[in-house]
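Follow-up to my earlier ticket, as requested here are the two runs.
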Amino acid sequence: MRFDIKALQDEGGVIALSLDAASEIDARHQAESQGLTILAIRQKLALSGLFARRNGRFPLVLFSQELLALLDAGLNLVEAIETLAEKEQRTDTRKLLDQLIHSLYEGQTFSVALQQFPEAFPPLYVSTVRASEKTGGLSEAITRYVAYQSQLDVVRKKLVSASIYPVILMVVGGLVTLFLMVYVVPKFSSIYEDMGGDLPWMSQLLISWGKLLEAHGSVMLAGAIIAVTLFFYGVTRTATKRWVGEKLWQIPLIGERMKIYQLARFYRTVGMLLRGGIPVVTALDMVSGLLAPALHASLQNAIALVREGRSLSASMETHALTTPVSLRMLRVGERTGDMGEMMERIAAFYDEEMARWVDWFTKLFEPLLMAVIGLIIGMIVVLMYMPIFELAGSIQ
């Protein structure tokens, strides 16, 4: 990552510079080692920086799996991280691991060292490690997190794979439609215009479209490029995503499925934290940010009820954060005292329900999408050939 720094030199001058660093803390250390007093620091958000940051994302799951293998082989924590740093090829990742090792040699705990790099280690990971430090079960904590992340990746991959074919259909259908309207239709319009005579209204429509493209083709192309650019820019904005999400929540069928997906991730995360030894109220507070805004207020109200002494199942039921199945399973977990495992079972049940719904929806949506695309292309083709049919009928 690249950081823009404004700093004060020893002789009193103010300079601006850019540094490559694994984190903001690393950038501060680099600047201070040059004898500079930092006045302001911010991460560079240029497009190239965004792509570089995305491509250089810290491989947390791979790091956890390799660390777990080394710990199980008998290495201590510092030796394991040093081994990972020695084999690492990417500069940013090696710098981050070197900073971790330096913090551990200073006597900091592993969780405190991880907390210095929030862009690489999310709060859930840090909290899981911190809870394991009290019990001495670091390997078990890392194993739980890897399993948790793997389950989330499985659900995400199912959703992505289910959307690939419809997206391909829409792209291909759009390109075919664009080719017909931009190239084929104007050719037909020029033929009809040369024929002259009293043409049917379909022919008049084709001729008007052809003349419009011929006269203002470059302007329309520039407008289309600007419109597509603005569309993709708007789609990537956080406010736009929030607005679209709020509208989707208002659609009964889609909103209910989105709620199930949110609850599945919520229950799985809380279950992992509870099994790691984190108290239930603390776990609920930690995962509140995972829920959509439509459910965030309900969770805060449920947490308030739990603090007042109400049971977790009753609090969640009061604020519509359960389904009939999950409510019964929560009550069983309260009776047996194994709430963490029960929440993970609820998440697994929700994941299976989501998988069945996605499979049903794709089987229904794909034929409908093909029919709509075929209808649009068919209408354009009929629009092109109808004047010929009408002229042929008039000649006969």
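Run two:
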Amino acid sequence: MPVVLAGDYNVVPTALDICQTHSYNDDALVQPESRAAFRRLVKQGWTDAIRAQHPEERIYTYWDYMRNPWPRHADLRLDHLLLSVDLAQRLVASGVDREVRGKANASDRALAWAEPRDMATRG
């Protein structure tokens, strides 16, 4: 059965998922224990949809209002889509709707998304 574990994991898995800053150094989001827990979850057979499609790209899902990182495209990737094996095999695209964050009265987050091939075309 295709499954997506989606949500705000409150973890920044790698240095690629955070803008270069020292302001988060003591935050639980980037601690070795938090990152190790995320890696253990992925090693159970889940695929990080964003990293699968964008292995070297800095992609963020969260921009803090208090630090004004939006204009600089600088902050964190906290929201993750982990795909089951069968769903990961059908992944054709993934990303973040970053433009939404720039609108008036927007959330501090932008939506992460993943697009699988149609289930009817399995093969």
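The only thing I checked on run two: The mean pLDDT is 91. Let me know what else you need.
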